[in-house]
Design a protein that fits this description.
Helices cover 43% and strands 21% of the residues. The chain is of the alpha/beta class. The protein is globular and about 70 Å long. The relative contact order is 0.10. The protein binds GDP-alpha-D-glucose.
Length: 476
């Protein structure tokens, strides 16, 4: 039965509020042709939904299309509070300030961040709109959890509007070293924005330390280990909470007969090669696709990997297609793959199979099952869930994971084949090593990583953060 949707009056009623750029629901068409909503796929929604349902909570976010007004409603036992954005606001706040300034700046400047004052003005205006929506729906003394780089100024704004709330913030991407962060023309305001939270959570301890250092250097705060003491007498904690996946769900899906059939069919479609190498990424310049494709190109054209027996399958999911750098990357990868395949392919068979498309979760799980070697080589990544999904889904002991040292996941998946993606020879060697290692080594490494991913799943992540936030003293 479809979840009930009812209209909702927003009257400071929710004891737990999530604030994220996107709502946890997507539009869908009902069987009678009318428009409805369905729960969005994704770990964050899966993990937080039970918590908001149990506490009669609400989720504040953008519905995903510009220039559309949506009234608040209840869905599946929780409130949905849409924040409207105009086309210009999407361009300046979302594509601009969020994805062409913060995104590259926080990923070690692997592309140049652009700084535009009108983007920043829009960012602040929209952050204020999200903060206002949260302030309107949160009950007295409620807990509010703000998510990610699009909303870094919400904690400060929300605290000014509602000093009674407990506020948490979690950054899904890396927080940069002080030398890079100092480029930002609005650096002081961003730090002040985040300091509005009681707990600022990061993927890695290194990011938390960068933040504490900035609090000291830029805001002149007194700090002690993971604590920052603000001028208005509050204590802010900056700590790592490495995010994870719904590991059991991924395993269950990958074990279904449908997933097995799709995996089998995929192998046949790829020509029953001895070995399948797999990459699954949003087509993003942080994911290291250029050096990865180049490495495979050299391995295939040199004959170190025989195209008769090896296939590299790369799924690139379309993303942020309105941003120039993403359009350039799309063109580059298309050209590189075409060139390599024309140099080293045989009639009717290409060594690189490249799919610019998104797939249902079942098919992703089947691909993870089918892949002998998973290649995850971002130049920088907060965590990287694909690496964890492969470990959870590939439940036979013959798999291998090649993983970038610069993904947050590398701190946990220490039994992967770790690489520096900037070192092309090192990358090629590690791909060959992972492919050629003994079954005993593969088994040992996979077992240890599986243990990690099942012990530390998405529920553990949410519980850890919310338990810490729960033990923050209630504001006076
Ligand atoms: C940010 C941070 C951090 C991909 N293609 C399809 C599809 N996906 C799913 C994957 C995975 C997710 O998208 C991608 O997660 P990642 O962690 O790899 O990367 P980002 O999108 O950059 O996420 C990252 C994450 O936030 C969480 O904090 O780990 O570091 O950058 O779950 O499976 N899903 C479906 N079809 C696809 O074609 N259904």
């Amino acid at each position: 039965m479809a979840p009930r949707e009812d209209s909702l009056s927003i009257s400071q009623s929710a004891d737990f509020v999530v604030v994220a750029n996107r709502l946890p629901v997507d539009r869908m068409e009902n069987p009678d042709g009318s428009q409805g909503w369905k729960t969005s796929p994704g770990g964050l929604v899966t993990a937080l939904k039970p918590v908001i349902q149990a506490q009669g909570g609400a989720w504040v976010g953008w519905g995903g299309s510009a220039d559309e007004h949506i009234d608040p409603f209840t869905f599946d036992g929780h409130g949905v509070i849409p924040v409207d954005l105009s086309g210009d606001e999407v361009r300046d706040y979302y594509e601009g300030m969020s994805n062409a300034t913060f995104w590259p700046l926080y990923h070690d400047c692997v592309e140049h961040p652009e700084y535009h004052r009108e983007w920043w003005d829009a960012y602040l205006r929209i952050n204020e709109r999200f903060a206002r929506a949260a302030a309107d729906v949160a009950a007295l003394g409620a807990t509010v959890w703000v998510q990610d780089y699009q909303l870094q100024n919400v904690p400060e704004m929300l605290r000014a509007m509602r000093p009674d709330l407990k506020i948490g913030f979690f950054l899904h991407i890396p927080f940069p070293p002080i030398e890079l962060f100092m480029q930002l023309p609005w650096r002081y305001q961003v730090i002040e924005g985040l300091l509005g939270a009681d707990i600022v959570g990061f993927q890695e301890p290194g990011s938390a330390q960068n933040f504490v250092r900035l609090g000291r250097r830029l805001a002149g705060l007194h700090t002690l280990r993971d604590k920052l003491f603000t001028s208005d007498g509050r204590t802010v904690t900056a700590r790592a909470y490495p995010i994870s996946i719904d590991s059991q769900d991924m395993l269950n899906i990958s074990r279904t007969p449908q997933a097995r059939d799709i995996a089998q069919q995929l192998r046949e479609d790829l020509g029953n090669p001895d070995r399948i190498f797999l990459g699954i990424d949003r087509l993003d310049y942080t994911k290291g696709l250029r050096p990865r494709v180049r490495s495979f190109g050299e391995l295939f054209t040199s004959g170190q990997l025989d195209p008769a027996h090896n296939v590299y399958l790369q799924v690139a999911t379309p993303t942020r297609e309105g941003v120039r750098r993403y359009q350039e990357l799309h063109r580059d990868i298309d050209e590189m793959v075409g060139r390599i395949n024309s140099l080293s392919g045989r009639i009717g068979r290409s060594p690189i199979v490249y799919r610019y498309s998104s797939y249902p979760k079942l098919e992703l799980a089947a691909m993870y099952r089918a892949a002998d070697v998973m290649i995850v080589t971002p130049l920088r990544d907060g965590m990287n869930l694909v690496a964890k999904e492969y470990v959870a889904a590939h439940d036979s002991d013959d798999g291998a994971l090649v993983l970038s040292e610069f993904a947050g996941a590398a701190l946990e998946l220490t039994h992967s084949y770790l690489v520096n993606p900037y070192d092309l020879n090192g990358l090629k060697n590690q791909i060959l090593r992972a492919a050629g290692d003994s079954h005993a080594n593969h088994a040992r490494r996979m077992r240890s990583m599986r243990k990690q991913v099942f012990r530390h799943d998405i529920d553990a992540w949410a519980n850890n953060f919310l338990t810490d936030l729960g033990s923050v003293p209630q504001p006076a």
